[in-house]
Amino acid sequence: AEIIGTIQLGSRTPREFKPEEVHLFEAIGHQLGIAVQKTKLYEANQQALKEIEALYAVTTTATQSLTLNTVLQEVIRKVTDIFAFDTTRIFLLDSSMQTLVLEASYEISPEKYSGVRSFRRGQGVVGRAAESPEPIIFEDIRSDPKYSAMSHSGNARTVGFRFFAVFPITRKDQTIGVVTFSQNDPRSLSSGEIKLLAAMAAQIAVAVENASLYEEITKRANDLQKKTWELEKANRAKDEFLAMISHELRTPLNVMMGYTGLLREGMFGALNPQQDDALKKVAIQSNDLLSIVSNLVRTTQIGSGEIKAERARTDLGQLLDEIKTAYDLPLNNGLTLNWDFPSDLPTVETDSEKLKHTLVNLINNAIKFTEKGSVTIAARHLPKSKTLRFTVADTGVGISRESLPLIFDMFHQLDSSNTRAHGGLGLGLYIVKKYTELLGGKIKVKCALGRGSVFRVALPYESSLCHESTLPAVTPESRIVDPWMTES
After folding, report:
1. Please, are residues 7 and 32 in contact by the beta-carbon 8 Å criterion?
2. C-alpha to C-alpha distance for 214 and 132, rounded to whole angstroms
């Protein structure tokens, strides 16, 4: 048994205790011991509960906001309520990690003590605490010689403080600041209070880290929003510029082509063969330039979402005959065009202008990259899958495996030598793909370098067409069959 105290009995006259009286007093002492132990245990439990509640209060405060100054001031208020310090101050290391800067403070008498607002790391008690894993505590700075040895300015003693303690604020084994506690009277902290203050300093570290992360996320979000706005502004400016330039170019080009046509028809007098040949070249180049300008306009409209599919009844046979007629003029001696479509193609509802432009772009692209051989244009009506299939095949230069995934990208062209030989802005296939998707269809390509290319477009002719520049809903009736969109 552990002796925790004694009971003293006295009398003015001599007396001898009987054995039963001795047993009684022993029993009373035992019960008093139990009572004292229960009281101490109760007080310890109450103190532990108080510490838990205090730590919970500080933890809650440290996580209730992501604004650092607000959190630090609230944490200081909680600590002051719990420990009744006369002064509490929080210093955090700046970005250089060499200077401790005052971020939040509480003084019971601010007119008495303003204090130093920054410390160099390693300077004085505060600066040394930033380099120590353990707190530095002076129960009475007047009688503790270590304070004079460590203090840089002796400011705490000058203003009349007796108790002074500095706890490091550490996160992930790295000190990010310190918290100081001062009191006008000497004070001794229990081991439990020291642990509690250290735990509170750790919660301050969590609050600082959370606030820093929030600040960084907010900054990045603002930067992203700003860059997004700048990109949108730049895109709008680009679209407006392209639209303006395209409009301004198309008008004089149409005038040039009109007068060239009048000259060749002899409206201003007869032409000799050399003059007619020169005007023919002017007409061809002007037509190519007009095609480039028109593609720029279409690309701008696609990017701004202005393109819509205008649904109307279209005679496919008549549409293909019109396209075929446009290529009646003889091509170079080494190239032939083959047309392969039946006479009984159906009349369907589609956007004839966009379908025509899609096919013409594919044909022109095939002609441009085929110096010798043939270009074959085919069309099929596939009633089983309710699909229209158009194929443009050539025997030209083909496309490399590396370039194949990029050919439908805006402004993409083949390698530089081909670009110089054939010209263009690389918009034709981009528009073809966008128009095909707008009509609810798919486009695929098969090719081999040096052995030509085959482009195939499949359109569901009974599906609901897009009225916005988005893909239509695919129903079982309008689903395009793959692979290679076949029915032979």
Report:
1. yes
2. 28
